[in-house]
Structures are given as structure tokens and as C-alpha cells.
């Protein structure tokens, strides 16, 4: 039976538009680290590389390659961990050129480090890309987090983060990192700005 994350992992990818506490287990990702404006061509190219690899994994059986433990699934959504360069923190307006990011796409459990390297080579032979050498395959475990669904423009995310911070205060939770994760449920190329859905998440610990 096909694994569809929208149905089988709603708690991780389709939370309500109000804060909640959740524990995120370890997952494997293809990822690219970078910095600069997410509206840039470089950022778009990085996204393209991640999707090329992700679909290459999914389509392996059609090439006569069936990895051990393979199962049919829907490709997972794009995610990003966001930070800001030290010199840009504390400014009254966000300088997007100073953003630091790691964008990634989760891979199914059957994808091993060896298989990931093989698929990178397969994609490289099909179409060389200057960013392929920057791709990493790593496991990440976020653990205890606060998350909520943000509806609308990315530029209005601070409003949702404010709600999440209030939730932490009321529930004796401390945010433990200035970075945060975003999961892009909507495709901004096909979705009106007001209808965009983005999961916002940051790590917390219980207060003493």
C-alpha cells in the first residue's frame, strides 16, 4: 500500500493553525546548505536538485532497480532550517540576503547512505549540475518541538511565531535554538499567497 504523508503523517505535516507540542523522531534527508535570498535563482536551483534526487529514488524500480525494503510512497515536501547571520540579528527589518539555510527533502527509511551516493551518481550522469556536489545525506532528529500551521504570506510568519512564543510561556517551555524549521505544504508557484500553508517548528525543552 502506498505511503502518503498527507494521510499517514498528518501530525507531522498537517497540524492545525494553533501551537502544539510534538516530538519529532529521526529522519533521513537529502540536504543543501546555503546562504542568501530565498527569492534568488541559486535557491531555486538548489530546490531543483533536491527534487531531482528525490524523484530518482522513487522511480528506481522503473529503471530495474528495487532497493531492499522499497515501498511505494509520495515524495515528501520541501523543508528548510533557517537562521540569520550574526551581523543581521537585532535589526528592525529582515535582510533576506543575510539568511542562512539548509533546505532538505526527507527520504524513506529504505534509503541508505550507500543508495543515496549511488543515486547522486545516477543523477550526475543524466545531467551535471554545479550544486550536486553540495548535497549531503544525513539523519536529523528534532526531538521536542512546538509547531503550528502558518497560513498566508511568508513575510507574515513573525505573527505566528509570536503566537508560538506565547504558547511556550503559558506551558513552561523554553525555546532552545534561534533557528527554526519550515515545511512547505503548498507550491508557491501554483498557490495564491493568502492560501499558502507552511508548517513552522522550533525546538524546545520543558522548564524547570
UniProtKB/TrEMBL annotation:
Superkingdom of the source species: Bacteria
Name this protein carries in UniProt: GyrI-like domain-containing protein
Lineage: Bacteria, Bacillati, Bacillota, Clostridia, Eubacteriales
Domain GyrI-like small molecule binding residue range list: 18-202
Pfam families, per the entry: GyrI-like (PF06445)
Amino acid at each position: 500500500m502506498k505511503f502518503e504523508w498527507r494521510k499517514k503523517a498528518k501530525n507531522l505535516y498537517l497540524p492545525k493553525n494553533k501551537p502544539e507540542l510534538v516530538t519529532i523522531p529521526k529522519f533521513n534527508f537529502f540536504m543543501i546548505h546555503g546562504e542568501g535570498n530565498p527569492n534568488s535563482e541559486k535557491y531555486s536551483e538548489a530546490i531543483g536538485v533536491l527534487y531531482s534526487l528525490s524523484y530518482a529514488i522513487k522511480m528506481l524500480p522503473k529503471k530495474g532497480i528495487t532497493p531492499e525494503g522499497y515501498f511505494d510512497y509520495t515524495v515528501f515536501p520541501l523543508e528548510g532550517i533557517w537562521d540569520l547571520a550574526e551581523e543581521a540579528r537585532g535589526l528592525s527589518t529582515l535582510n533576506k540576503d543575510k539568511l542562512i539555510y539548509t533546505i532538505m527533502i526527507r527520504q524513506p527509511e529504505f534509503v541508505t547512505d550507500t543508495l543515496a551516493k549511488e543515486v547522486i551518481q545516477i543523477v550526475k550522469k543524466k545531467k551535471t549540475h554545479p550544486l550536486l556536489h553540495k548535497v549531503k545525506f544525513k539523519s536529523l532528529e528534532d526531538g521536542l518541538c512546538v509547531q503550528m500551521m502558518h497560513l498566508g504570506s511568508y513575510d507574515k510568519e513573525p505573527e505566528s511565531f509570536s503566537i508560538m512564543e506565547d504558547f511556550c510561556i503559558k506551558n513552561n517551555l523554553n525555546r532552545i535554538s534561534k533557528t527554526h524549521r519550515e515545511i512547505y505544504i503548498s507550491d508557491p508557484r501554483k498557490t495564491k499567497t493568502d492560501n499558502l500553508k507552511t508548517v513552522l517548528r522550533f525546538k524546545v525543552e520543558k522548564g524547570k
